[in-house]
Design goal:
This is Rieske (2Fe-2S) protein. With 119 residues, the protein is mainly beta. Helices cover 0% and strands 48% of the residues. It is globular. The structure holds FE2/S2 (inorganic) cluster. The site of FE2/S2 (inorganic) cluster (FES) has 8 residues, from loops.
Amino acid sequence: MKEQVVCKTSDIQPGDMMKSTFGKQTVLVCRTPDGEFYAFMNQCIHQGAPLDKGMVCGATTENSEPGEYEYCHKGEIIRCPWHGREFDIKNEGRMLANPNKKIPSFKVRVEHESVIVYK
Ligand code: FES
């Protein structure tokens, strides 16, 4: 099994993300507001934008009434810097507008203060 420490837990605040490397690949390590860590390929599946140049944001609920918007999932959505496609960190990196598509992800575990990505 291939594994690598990609950062320390203190390197990423909840609701933020950072670029790191896993072997020869560039990965995007995300920490959601609940403190969990996730890792994805740092490349948008649309046209290849570096996702670390985008932002972590939230989304609006699908069940809102017309004209009403409820902001949710704050700190759990990656928005691509080039054309704004959004990906759900806690749902395997699936695209909000098309959940059949997702960013390739990596397994993550935390040991002591180290964030470890592995296959
Ligand atoms: S490259 Fe990400 S939305 Fe186009």
